[in-house]
Design goal:
Strand order of the largest sheet: 1-2
Oligomer: single chain
Order of helices and strands: HHHHEEHHHHHHHHHH
Number of helices: 14
Shape: elongated
Length: 306
């Protein structure tokens, strides 16, 4: 092996190393996806979960709050004044009990802020995020039981596969790098290839994600299920037979594009990085949140890929 690495010309090795790295990354991805692919036939129908579950899978706790806010705004429980992210959210004169615990929590939090809050302040408030997470404990447990969220063991397995792949790619590339350095050969391109391979590996496997491959697949099924309602919303300005909050939970605020009745909410609650219906994703969220690899941020009207 060492003699082969010594004899092989640098440019030829780089070509082989590129192919080798791609194959390793693809295999690692397939193995991880296969291990996380619990029996899809045992999953409940899309209608089983509330909007908050899909929002959590797609973008974590901030998306849960965003979805709850849309539902509260639709019911006129809260009001929006101003435009864009500088708009202010305040409670209206609403006295009826709210059956949804997440919506009730958001409403109670806002009621304690009579001066109102801007959408960014609301979505990033640590105390509210913690309260919402407590309300979602049972939902999180069910999502993990169904393997839509990674369990602790699945997290460890994802990192183990990642480190094993890094070791294999780094072992081959590192050995050639050492041989090049000890023989005063140029190694700049090899170093670049190693860095690119590491970035590509982490970008593909994303071992830090809390949402599993099965969770991404299930979210894509939800996007497909609600596609008819989404198209009807854009055509007739009404989500017939579907609670509109489901569309926000699954697609994000981008689903409201071009609908005048919802323009004030979209302008206030669409993340700055969110474009149109592009199916963009985000992996960041607060606390033990989802979003991974789901479609986070403003979401895309195309749903999530597997």
């Amino acid at each position: 092996m060492i003699n082969f690495l010594v004899r092989i010309p640098g440019p030829v090795f780089l070509l082989y190393f590129l192919i080798f790295s791609i194959v390793c990354i693809i295999l690692a991805r397939l193995v991880l996806k296969q291990l996380e692919g619990a029996d899809k036939l045992t999953l409940p129908p899309v209608s089983h979960f509330k909007p908050s579950a899909y929002a959590y899978l797609r973008g974590g706790l901030p998306e849960v709050i965003r979805t709850a806010m849309f539902s509260l705004w639709q019911k006129r429980v809260v009001v929006l004044s101003g435009n864009g992210s500088d708009a202010v959210v305040q409670c209206s004169n609403f006295s009826e009990p709210l059956p949804d615990p997440v919506e009730a929590t958001v409403y109670a939090f806002l009621k304690a802020k009579p001066q109102g809050l801007t959408p960014p302040a609301l979505l990033n408030d640590t105390s509210l995020l913690n309260k919402i997470e407590q309300k979602l404990r049972s939902t999180q447990d069910e999502l993990r039981r169904l393997h839509l969220l990674r369990t602790k063991e699945e997290h460890l397995r994802a990192w183990a596969i990642t480190w094993m792949t890094i070791t294999v790619i780094g072992g081959v590339g590192g050995t050639k790098l050492y041989l090049g350095l000890t023989r005063a050969r140029p190694v700049v391109f090899l170093v670049i290839f190693l860095v690119v391979a590491l970035i590509a590996l982490l970008s593909v496997l994303k071992p830090w994600n809390t949402v599993s491959s099965l969770g991404k697949w299930y979210l894509a099924q939800a996007a497909s299920h609600f596609q008819g309602a989404m198209k009807k919303l854009h055509k007739e300005k009404i989500a017939d037979g579907v609670e509109p909050a489901y569309l926000i939970a699954v697609y994000g605020t981008a689903v409201l594009s071009g609908i005048a009745a919802y323009s004030i909410f979209q302008g206030a609650f669409t993340p700055p990085s969110s474009g149109g219906c592009s199916g963009g994703s985000s992996d960041s969220s607060s606390g033990d949140s989802g979003g991974s690899s789901g479609c986070g941020g403003g979401g895309g009207c195309g749903g999530c890929g597997g």
